[in-house]
Write a structure and sequence with these properties.
CATH class: Mainly Alpha
Oligomer: single chain
Order of helices and strands: HHHHHHHHHHHHHHH
Helix content: 55-70%
CATH architecture: Orthogonal Bundle
Number of domains: 1
CATH superfamily: Triphosphoribosyl-dephospho-CoA protein
Radius of gyration: 18 Å
CATH topology: Triphosphoribosyl-dephospho-CoA protein
Shape: globular
Number of strands: 0
Number of helices: 15
């Protein structure tokens, strides 16, 4: 892996954010950028550069306002990538990174594995402290990233002023965006879904890339991708979910055909599912349950 800033030590917030981003980008997930597939406006190298760029801002996430962390991370990523590379990842991971370290005496049970941290309740406590200043910074970060497919909203539209209550805005967006739903409804489904899927695959001896792709397909089968639904409509998103369920365990040829169908004749990118996958990897890395293979 390319070098990170010296203060981003292995296992720390920034290191985990960068490694989670790179692992997610490097697994050959259908319909996404990876080392063997690029988009016209985004390559695997861009995703790696953006992942490294967010390390330093997220390293400081527990000691600064959440909105400022998100704006700094998005600004750093936009400086090294030609288009929006990781806004969804930053929005999904930043609340996790903002959770303070637990007291030493609360490190977990004496016997058996410690609980996965950061826990959903810890993240909820971070989000409960949001201020209008956080909302303004997050609004600026989203505008700076300029993601496609957001559409418009009668309330809290990006073309207008930022909301004073960011969580209320996320609740209004939850039906059309899975990352907003994490903020609004909690991170427990991420633990119960993607985190559990990756853990089970690794415990069964599955290679890491295969575990990531398998968990990504399981999530896509479980829940239509919200980016696809916004860009192409709910019927297309539901069809992609059905096909993701069908190719799970069907072999490499079926997976390759599914991947090709998401790229041509038009780009149907399950990008939000990829963002959630990166957040799950962050949790596993931060908790020490996952260590990436040596470079």
């Amino acid at each position: 892996m390319p070098p990170l800033p010296a203060r981003c030590r292995p296992g720390g917030r920034g290191w985990c954010a960068a490694v989670a981003s790179i692992l997610e980008a490097s697994a050959p997930k259908p319909g996404n950028v990876h080392p063997g597939a690029a988009f016209v406006d985004l390559s695997h190298a861009d995703l790696v550069a953006a992942g490294i760029a967010i390390a330093a801002p997220l390293e400081d996430a527990a000691t600064r306002p959440l909105g400022g962390t998100i704006l700094a991370a998005v600004s750093a990523a936009r400086a090294v990538a030609p288009s929006n590379a990781n806004l969804g990842i930053v929005l999904a991971i930043a609340p996790l990174a903002a959770v303070p370290d637990p007291p030493v005496c609360d490190a977990g049970p004496r016997h058996g594995a410690a609980p996965l941290r950061p826990r959903p309740d810890d993240v909820a406590a971070v989000l409960a402290r949001l201020t209008p200043a956080d909302a303004a910074d997050v609004w600026e970060a989203i505008r700076l990233a300029a993601p496609g497919g957001l559409g418009s909203s009668p309330r809290h539209d990006l073309a207008g002023p930022p909301p004073t209550d960011l969580l209320e805005a996320m609740r209004l967006a939850a039906a059309r965006d899975a990352v907003a739903r994490l903020w609004a409804e909690g991170y427990a489904p991420l633990h119960d879904g993607l985190v559990a899927d990756i853990t089970a695959a690794l415990d069964a001896g599955t290679p890491l890339d295969d575990a990531i792709v398998g968990a990504f397909l399981a999530q896509l089968a479980r829940e239509p991708d919200s980016l696809i639904a916004r860009r192409h409509g709910p019927a297309v998103a539901a069809d992609v979910s059905r096909r993701a369920a069908a190719v799970r365990g069907a072999g490499p040829d079926a997976l390759a055909a599914f991947d090709a169908s998401l790229r041509r004749p038009r780009r149907v990118n399950p990008g939000t599912t990829a963002d959630l996958t990166a957040a799950a990897l962050y949790i596993l890395l931060r908790s020490g349950r996952l260590r990436p293979p040596p470079a």
